[in-house]
Amino acid sequence: MGRIARMVLEIGQFSGVEPQLLRMAFEVIVSGTVLEKAEIEMLTPQLLLYCRACETEYLAEPDDLRCQACLGEEFDILQGKEMRVKSIAGGDA
Amino acid sequence: MSQLSEDRLRRPGEIKGLEQTDHPELRVVRLEEEVLAANETVAAQNRALFRQHRLYVMNLISSPGAGKTSLLVETLLKLNNKLRCGVIEGDLQTAHDAQRIAESGTPVVQINTRDACHLNAAMVGEALAALPLPELDLLFIENVGNLICPSAFDLGEHEKVVLMSITEGEDKPVKYPLAFHLAKLLLLTKIDLLPHLRFDLDLCKDYVRRVNPHIEILTTSVYDESGLEAWLDALQQRVEEEKRAHMA
Known about the structure:
The complex is a heterodimer of chains A (93) and B (248).
Chain A: E1 3-11, H1 19-29, E2 39-43, E3 48-51, E4 56-59, E5 75-79, E6 83-91
Parallel strand pairs in A: 1-2
Antiparallel strand pairs in A: 1-6, 3-4, 3-5
Chain B: E1 27-34, H1 37-52, E2 56-61, H2 68-79, E3 85-91, H3 96-102, E4 108-112, H4 121-128, E5 138-142, E6 159-165, H5 172-175, H6 177-182, E7 185-189, H7 201-211, E8 216-219, H8 228-245
Parallel strand pairs in B: 2-5, 2-6, 3-4, 3-5, 6-7, 7-8
Helix pairs in contact in B: 1-4
């Protein structure tokens, strides 16, 4: 793969990374690299949790992770902390 | 709470977006590579070193001025070698904090990150080489004063401890949720100022529990020394548990 045309990133809502700022930084840092002309797509998975009391999945904002149905304190984060390069796509040009 | 939106909600394995490319000439390579994989690798090396030396390690995180260094200086004086401690100090510039720590006779390494707003595992790994690890029970890593970026970088520590002075306002935990979510222990510092401030302690604790229901909370002051006994007990307990865990 001589040239990378596209890159897919996954930046969760609770990853601590601001997608807009990452995009700006990306544009600066790729200059002169194989990623220079690459399009970047950012998937931004929402914060998804599981309430062990209600046994249901729910979406939350980062400033309150509790299940709003029961305000339960036993929850697991299922999705939203991702900070991952999912794939790259390119040709030989 | 946000509406469930199909667009933003994606399950593992369900890959959308540019991988379904309408440009057949492009070859797609699935990577699933963690952005911080390089840091994770070095953090794991640090962790192995800590385990080898049965060394308990705390990563102290707070805003600038919450009182991390003051707490450490007081802690080292009070411990008076009951636990053998080492300290890694992270600051953008100066060795001021390391000098304050060194006065207690504790081995200390200052990291100057220059323009970086957090410590990473490699910086800590280098600093470890300058510390007498076999002679230590407990290592404090004082991160750069910042409640945002340090949360993202695993240093190999056993736990993150977040400090917040009560002059910062009750809602700090929900404004900077990730740091408070990841910490096992919260120290509410400068508690001696409570009579002079409009700070609602119960409200603050309620905010913290929204992002971390099981966090342990201690209120401390290095001036009137309140809460310091409980903090020292917590340190002792952690060091003992770490030693026991690797006895068998």
